[in-house]
């Protein structure tokens, strides 16, 4: 029991209440040393740290205490002693002087404040708009999907007279490097005789490069390059003949081969789509 | 334009229909002449205030009115505004000591002499002026002047009395603390004029009251109680000539002249838009005072602001009439149970002032009352009706006239006017100034003060339990930056 009390540490007072020392024949009863807390006198010069004083709400001086027989005793803080703290650390330069009217500088102070507010408002609106549009535009097509819509073709790989076919947006894309003879031949064709009248120069940006979607306008087969009666393309399905500019000359197709949107980037590259 | 003339014609026709043919004009004038003097006649017949300035600068002013009693007093340009932090409370202390005997009449001899005349001695101290006045029979006027001169020049300032008064003043402070409206206004000044001498309370801090010595009080008297800053005012059955003779006899002593260069000057007091909240949830009601910076005494805009205050009106729960009040704000207050009472105020000092309103309300309706009161200010700037303005002008005229009942009030009016304006402004002039206010001109002034100019200067304070109050709310203002000391 006693050993438990000795090892109980902070619980000793509570434990020892249940245990009492029994004097033995040889050892007298040693009374437990009474721990009386030393009285710590209140040092009035040191600021008292309590919840109120730490939050700045304690009465600082000017306490008026009253005690009487038939009224409650009270300690009160008189309102005269409440001093407004000095806020000069927060004041603007114009209103630092306590003996100058604040009216004179009021316009400039207000103007500055309103200007800062307006500027911050504009900036915030701009940022907000950007953030929102970024989030919403993330719902639109992603980069890899967008990349599928364009194709970049290196023109130096295509020799003169040759037609190269690429897969673009699921359709064949014909890029033909035309010879000068072909160009002049196509330029000389009488437009009024064509089923779908279009001058060659209207269908190309640079005359030596003609870029076409290789889908026959009749029923969608893929024409064969460098075939047919007109030195252009021949569709084997139903016998449509196209010329070197992709215009329909003979056969059932109603329209010329489609010219997609393309751009020449530099001398050597064209981006279609 | 056309619409207005149609309306006027229509209303004239309506009136003719309602009241039938008007009685003959001759009958009407007869009735009028038999009655009492008209308002304008009365104003003109008020005796003129005569002012004489003595050699030492003392102004002697009086209004003779053939009455058996008179009030004679000294109004001094001294108050808590002239004190600094160390001497705050000296004026109030002096007022207490003034009644405790002079060198010629020590102890209670002074009071006994006043009482033996059957006279009343009184005084007050405010932020910018101190006054001592005696109400007595007219025939005792020379004696009264002598008593006043004794009081002002020869105050005994006995040490034993000073020590006794300390306790009395501290007790008075404790009692004043329970008058929450006054506490509110003290806090309002403390925050509106923070860092300046107008922030001081009139009574001073307890530390100063415990610390002020005879020397402090004597030096206060020495600096401030001087002839050029005093007005000897009188009203009642006295004659101005006799008053001046008595003044020349008693008020020309050496103590009343400034020594050398020691004329105190007033520095301007900066107004700070700020807020102070003294929260005490044990109190049942909240006292709120909200003010913007107003003009000083001598500014003619004061008339405009007083008319504006008359439009805003007052209210407290004892008013009958329910929701049918003439003041729109009062109607709102009743309808939505916003407050227990409210009143607008226009306090002026020599170069600045506070224009605002004070209300007492339940903690939960503070927010709503603030909103409505500020909304009323905004409404004043844009949409007052002509009938409202006319009513307010008449109310103000009535108040100015009714205020001057009795020789004491008249004497005080003389004293304070001479200190504030340098001359007594007669009721006729007030009436004229009020009459010339046109509906639009005063709106411009009111707007300048209450709406555009002062958005950044607002002082709000409340004492008592506090709900969620947002003092930053000012309905038509774009924003209220600068309600924190800026």
How would you briefly describe this protein structure?
Chain B: It is found in: Mitochondrion inner membrane. The complex is a heterodimer of chains A (273) and B (486). By secondary structure, chain A is α+β, with helices and mostly antiparallel strands.
Radius of gyration of chain A: 49 Å
Question: How helical, in percent, are the residues of chain B?
Answer: 40-55%
Number of helical segments with 4 or more residues of chain B: 18
Name of the top-level CATH class of the domain at 151-272 in chain A: Mainly Beta
Class by helix and strand content of chain A? alpha+beta
How many structural domains in the coordinates of chain B? 2
Radius of gyration of chain B: 25 Å
The number of distinct helices of chain A, counting runs of at least 4 residues, comes to 7
Outline of chain B: globular
Overall number of strands of chain A: 12
Fraction of residues in H or I helices of chain A = 10-25%
Fill in the CATH topology of the domain at 151-272 in chain A: Rieske Iron-sulfur Protein
Strand order within the widest beta sheet of chain A? 7-8-9-10
Q: Biggest interface pair, residues each?
A: A-B, 32 and 42 residues
**Regions of chain A with pLDDT < 50 over 5+ consecutive residues?**
15-19
- The third-level CATH topology of the largest domain in chain B is Cytochrome Bc1 Complex, Chain A, domain 1
Topology of chain B as a string of helices (H) and strands (E) = HHHEEEHHEEHHHHHEHEEHEHEEHHHHHE
Protein name (chain B): Cytochrome b-c1 complex subunit 1, mitochondrial
GO molecular function (chain B): metal ion binding; ubiquitin protein ligase binding
Subcellular location (chain B): Mitochondrion inner membrane
GO cellular component, one term (chain B): respiratory chain complex III
